[in-house]
Amino acid sequence: MSEFSGKTAIVTGAGQGIGEAYAKSLAKQGAAVVIAEINAEAGERVAQSIRDEGGQAIFLATDVGSADSCNEMADQTIKQFGGIDCLVNNAAIFAGKRKEGLLTIDLDYYRRFMDVNMNGLLLVTRAVYKHMAQRGGGSIVNQSSSAAWAAGDFYSLSKVGVNALTLSLARELGPMKIRVNGIAPGPTDTEATRTSVKPEVLEQILSKMPLGRMGTADDIVESCLFLLSARSSWITGQTLCVDG
User: Fold this and answer.
1) Which CATH class is domain 8-187+220-238?
2) Per-residue model confidence as pLDDT tens digits over 158-210
3) pLDDT digits (tens, 9 = 90+) for 76-101
4) Is 155 a catalytic residue?
5) What residues does each domain of the chain span?
6) Which of 113, 123, 188, 196 supports an S-S bond with 215, CB 3.0-4.6 Å?
7) Rounded distance, CA 176 to CA 55, Å?
8) Which helix (H) or strand (E) is 45 found in, with range?
């Protein structure tokens, strides 16, 4: 019925925005989906909406910056669904992030930010990769950003780290038949973008883009499904720019 039927997918930060779109699309394609989200209200809302549409989904409270929380999430996924096939490392701090430079940002805030935006994808991957290997392999997609190629603040730096981790993890996990790729969205029409980027700044960005418009969650989702599926079975270590 679907290329994801019988598979279990974890999407971190799936309580809103692009992560929510990833989770719902995977469920529509037949996957059992884990909403791994720190915001309980948002996470349960998405899981319930998937169940209301006839899909399989559970919410698991998850702090990707905590190894213990990630390990517990993986254990609960196995208890519920019996295995793990796909992972989307989407969770990140973006909306409401502090707008300061590297020389002045509070170091405790910086460390927490990097623990979520960069180290978090490593912690979740470490929590799930053995379970993927036991299923004969799997696929991981890491959420990067076009900001990784622009000189910027600690957000840009975290996404440079995501790209590097994608390459390193692809090499380590390849022998286990686990592929690791990334997606780097450009400016996308989500609540986080609308509340975090000033309209005049956004207009300036769009004016320099060849396609000249903001992306939508639907623009990003198809690339994620492709990279998670068998259609990309000989692709690993790549970060695909979906940025207009």
Assistant:
1) alpha beta
2) 999 999 999 999 999 999 999 999 999 988 877 766 676 778 877 888 788 88
3) 999 999 999 999 999 999 878 888 99
4) yes
5) 8-187+220-238
6) 188
7) 29
8) helix 40-52
